[in-house]
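worker-03 picked up job from queue 'complexes'. Input manifest follows; two sequence lines, order preserved.
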Amino acid sequence: MTEGSPRRFEYDGSPGAAQPGETLLTALARERLPILQRSVRYHRPRGPFCGIGQCTGCLVRVNGRPNVRACRYVPKDGDRATSEHAWPSVRFDALGLLDVVFPNGVDNLHGLRRPAFFTGFYQRVVRGLAGYHEPPSDAAAAALKAPVEERNVEVLVIGAGASGRSAAARLVARGLRPLLLDRGLAPQPVPGADLLAGTTVTFLPPASPGRDPPFDALAFTEPGRGVRVRARSVIIATGSYDATLLFGGNDRPGIVTADGALTLTGRGRLPPFRRAVVVGGGERAREVVERLGPHIQAVVAPGEIPPELVRAASDRGIRLYPRSMILSANGRRRVRSLELKARGSGPRFSLPCDAVVLAHRRLPNGPLFFQAGAKMVWRSGTGAYYPDVSEDGATSVPGLYAVGSAAGVLPSSSTESAARAADRIVGGTPDPRPLPRVSDSGRNELEGYYRELLRVPRSGRWIACACEDVLFEEVVTANASGYRGIEVVKRYTGLGTGLCQGRYCLPDALLVLSLLEGRSAPEVGYITQRPPTVPMPIAALAALSGSLTMETP
Amino acid sequence: MTPPSRTSYRTVVVGAGIVGLFTAHHLARSGAGPILVVDRGFLSSGASGRNGGGVRQQWENRATIRLARESVEAYRRFGREFGFNIWFRQGGYLFLAENARELDRLRTVHDLVRSEGLASEVLDPGGVAALVDGIAPEAVVGGTYLRTDGTLYPFPAVWGVYEAARSVGAEVALGVDAKGVSVRDGRVAGVVTSEGTVTAASVVNAAGGWSGDFSRAAGLSVPNVATRHEILATEPLKPFLNPMVVRTSDGLYFSQTMRGEIVGGLTVPHPTGTQGGAPSSIAFLGAMARALAGLIPRLGALGVLRAWSGFYDDTPDGFPVVGEDPRLPGFVHANGFGGHGFMLAPAASRRVARAVLGEGVDLDPQLFSPARFTTPAPASAIEGLQLG
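worker-03 finished. Artifact:
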C-alpha cells in the first residue's frame, strides 16, 4: 500500500498530496491539527475530533459531493476538495464574529421574533447560515449510481477489530466462511473469511422468524455502494469509541479523542502535535501514553491514576495530574493551554499544550443492538447501555450475538467472548463461566466529577452538542424551564439531532441531566436510535429492489 | 410522570399534542376551569413532534380551506402571542402533476382556492423548474403553487402553547394514560387514568393516532383508523429549495427546513393500528430515495441522516371529527385530522372549545360532526387531498 506515487489533489485552491491509501484528513494534518470546518451556528473554528467518521470536524465537499468526512476519504488524482461554510476561508472566517457578538448564544426559540416586519429578513439570514455545503452536483450523484451488492451468508460478523476477527477465525476453523464487514478503510483480513472494508451496516432490523435466513441487513461501502446481506446469524463486534467531555472551549481545534489521535498517527506517521495533554486515568490513557509518548507532556485524570499508568508515564518523563478537573481550553483559535483545578479545595493551574487527547471513557458502539430490538441493560461503570447477553454472547434476539467491548466485555477477555459466540453458532457448548465485564453497579466516576464541576463558575463556551452547536447553558435553561427527560431536552435544544446521531453529546448530557433532574440516568431516558446508523447516500438507498419488508423496532 | 394534582376537573383533555394543548388554552382562558390535560407520553412524543411542519391552504373543500386559512393567520401571529419563534416561513406549497389528469384535478383545487381569495397559481413545467432547482426534465407536466402556504418548526409551537395553557391555569399531566371514561346518567362523569379516576363534566378526545382506541374504550363505535406514516431527514445543505413540494401520485412531500435538512415522506402501506409501535422500514427508505433521486437527480449524492414514523388518525371521508358525540353527552371529539392536525389545530381547537362550552360551532355538521358516522345518510363530501 505504501508503493506508488502520491495522489495530487486540491484543497481550497491549494495543491496537496496523499500517499496511496492515505486519507484526505491525514494528508491535511501532517504538521499540526488543522482547522477544517466552521461550526454550524456560531462559526467556531473546528478541526478533526473523532477520527472515525462520526463527528462534523472534518466535513469537506469533494468533487461536488457535500458532507464528505475527510477522515473517511482516500483522495484520487485530480480531486477537488473545498470547505464552504466560511468566508473568506475556514482559517479566517468573518462569520466567526457571530461567536463574539453573541457571547450567550442566539436564542432561536424565543428570539428573532420582533419587530414582525423583520421576520422575513431574520429567516433569510438564519437560513443562509444553515447547512455546511451547497447541494450536490449532478456529476457527484451520477458517480454514486451502482447496483446494490447482494450477499447471502451463514454468519455475518460486523466489525473487524480484535474480537470480530477472533470470531471470524474461529468460525473458519469450524468450517464456515463468514462475511466480515468493517468501517475501516484497511482492516486486517482473516484467512478463509470474506471481508468488505469501508463498509458500514446502517440497518439491522430484528430477525424475522418466518424468513429464511432470518436476518436481512443493509450496509454501504464507501464511497456509497449499497450492500444487502442476508444471514442466519449475526455477530456484532462493533467495539467501543472514546467519549467527549464537557468544559469551556471543549470544541477547540486541537482537542481530539484518543481514536482521533491514533487515527492520525501510525503507518510511519508522527502525530500532528508535540506536547499534548492526555485526559484519563485508565487503560485507554495508558495505551495513548505508550504509543504517542514522546509527543505527550502530561496526563490529567478525573480520579486517581493507577500504578501501571504512573509507571508508563514516569518512564517517559510525562507529568501526572490525578484528581483534576478541566475548566476550560484556551487559545485564540486552536487550543494553547488548559485551565485546570485540582479537585476538592485544590488550586487552579494552567498547562500550555498544542493538543488534548480525550481518553477518559470508552463507550460501546451500540446503535445496531437498539435497531435489532435486543434487550439492553444500563451499566453504570461507563454510564451506557449494553445488550443483555448470556455468557456465550447470545442477545435476547435469537441468532444475534454480541462480543467484545460492544457487549461490555473487558479487553482482556474479548477474544474469549468471540470464541464462545462462534462455538455456540456451530452448535458447541461454550464455557458458561462469567466473563469480566464493565460494572453494572455503583456510580460512574464522571457523576461525581460533574457534580463538583458544575459548582465551579463556568468560563468559555461549553459546547453540549458540537454537530448542532448547542451550548451547555441551553441544556441548563431547558431544565430550569421545566423540560424534563432527554427526549424532551433533545427536542427543546436540538442536542443529539446532528450528523453524529448523538454519539458524542448524549452520554454526557444524560449524566448531567441526571444530576440536574435529581434522578438516575435510566430514568432520564435514552433517545431512540433512529436508522440509519450513519448517513447513507440516497443513491445507494434508491438502488434497493422494490420488495423490502425489513423494519426496525 | 406528573400525576394530576386534584381529583376533580371541569374538563379533561386527552392528548397533549398541538390540538389538545390549543383546546386547553382556549378553555382555560375563557375561565372554564379547572382543566386537566393528560398524555401517555412526554411532550411532543406523538404526531405533534413527528410531522413535517407543513401548513397549506390548498384543499378540495371550501370548509377545509377556511380552517386552514385561519390557521395560517394564527401561525403568523404565533411568535407575538406565544413568545416562541416557530420559524413559520411562507415559502409556498407546490403541488406537482405528472400527467394531464392530475393537472386537471389540481386546476379544480386551484379554482376553488382562488374563489376563496387566495392567490394560487397554475405553473407550466418551466414555472415548476424555477421553484425546484435541479428537477429532472420531463418530470412534471405542471403544478399549482400558493405562496402564502408554508412550513413551521413544530417543537416550539408545542412548547409555546404548553406554556401558555399552563400560564392561564390549565394543568398538564404527562406520562398519564387515559384508559376510559366513567359515565353517570348517560353522560360523562369522569376519566379513568393510570393514576386513578378523576371526575369531569366533559372530556375532549384529542389523542391523535390513539383517539379511535380511546373512543372505543368509552364504548363509542368510531371509524377512526391509525395509519403509520414514515418520514426522513437528510444531511443539511445550504438553502436551495423554497416551497414544500407535494406529488399527488404517491404522496411524496418534502421541504428544506430552516436548518437546511430535506425533510419529507411518502405513502407506503403498513398494517393499521398503533400496536406495532412506530418503526422505520427499509421499504420506505428505498421508495423515498427513489422518489427524491428520480425527481431531483443530484440529491443522490446526499446522505439520509435519520428516519422515524408516526401515526395519522384517518377518517373515511378525510374530514376531521370536531364536536360533541350525540351518543354520549360530555364526550367531545377533536380528532381524525388525517395527518393534518398541526396545520388545522389553531382554527379547529377554537371550535372544539366552543363545543365543550356548549356554544354554537360554525362548522358544517355534515362534514365535521361525529354524528355523520352514526346517521344512515351517506357522507356528502370527501376531502381527498390527504397528503403533504
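worker-03 released lock.
The longest strand of chain A covers residues 225-236.
Chain A has a mean pLDDT of 94.
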